[in-house]
């Protein structure tokens, strides 16, 4: 592995070639890779650590991803967008992006951090991506920063478009239930069919004793996720937004019957759609 010092200009040329960006102010690029442990051991070092650039880059990253999700996926609700954004800007995703570019080679680390494997540590790699994005924003503006990070995130964004990255529907339903002061959802196993090596599980999600969704899968966990998704989709379909039906329903029997019929139709449609989905999570 090649490790570079800030004074090694050819090293930073290699770095810029790797990331596909030529910095006007190379000092910003260099600072993006300075870990706080290096500054602690070298108090007279020319540049501060990358923590301020990381702070800026985090804000830029969240804005760019939020803007793209809002524009590209107009049918997703706020909660769904929030869950997907969290998966795109989380430490593991950013660390994987850094690893794909081998950014760890350019990190300036203190001796202790180096000895403890800091060059491959997920937190250091993720922070370097955010600091690099912050540096690029300062050097060349939002347009270049947007192009850079969206290019890196293109495979993940494509997976969202094909349904391979989904929101955490169990978390969304749980948040909705807690927000309305309702009992915790119960996931009830309805059926476990088939031989041990190829079982199919069917699970219902119940809130206030009412089944709001049903899901199937090769494990109970997958079936629960699909049941939560069916409930979420049914609520959205029936009410035009995500809120729980009030216990007791509408005041008149006719209204209650109409509400239940609409809800059942939506729940059935959600369940059919879930069974067609690949059980990727």
What structural keywords apply?
281 residues; mainly alpha; Ribonuclease iii, N-terminal Endonuclease Domain, Chain A; Double Stranded RNA Binding Domain; 2 domains; 13 helices; 3 strands; 59% helix; disordered N terminus; disordered C terminus
What would your notes on this structure say?
By secondary structure, the chain is mainly alpha-helical. It has two domains: about 10-160, Ribonuclease III domain (Ribonuclease iii, N-terminal Endonuclease Domain, Chain A, Orthogonal Bundle); about 170-275, Double Stranded RNA Binding Domain. Helices cover about 60% and strands about 10% of the residues. It contains 13 helices and three strands. The protein has helices spanning about 10-20, 25-30, 35-40, 50-70, 80-90, 90-100, 110-115, 120-140, 140-150, 155-160, 170-180, 220-240, 255-275; strands at about 185-195, 200-205, 210-215. Strands 1-2-3 form a three-stranded antiparallel sheet. Helix 6 crosses helix 8 (about 120-140). It is elongated.
Task: Calculate Rg over CA atoms.
Answer: 24 Å
Model regions low in confidence, pLDDT < 50 over at least 5 residues: 1-9, 249-281
Individual helix count? 13
The CATH H-level homologous superfamily of the largest domain: Ribonuclease III domain
Shape: elongated
Give a count of the beta strands, DSSP E runs of length 2 or more.
3
The overall pLDDT, averaged over residues, is 82
What's the structural blueprint in terms of helices and strands?
Elements lengths: L8 H11 L6 H6 L4 H6 L9 H22 L5 H12 L1 H11 L9 H5 L6 H19 L1 H11 L1 H8 L7 H11 L6 E8 L6 E8 L2 E8 L2 H20 L13 H24 L5
Antiparallel strand pairs: 1-2, 2-3
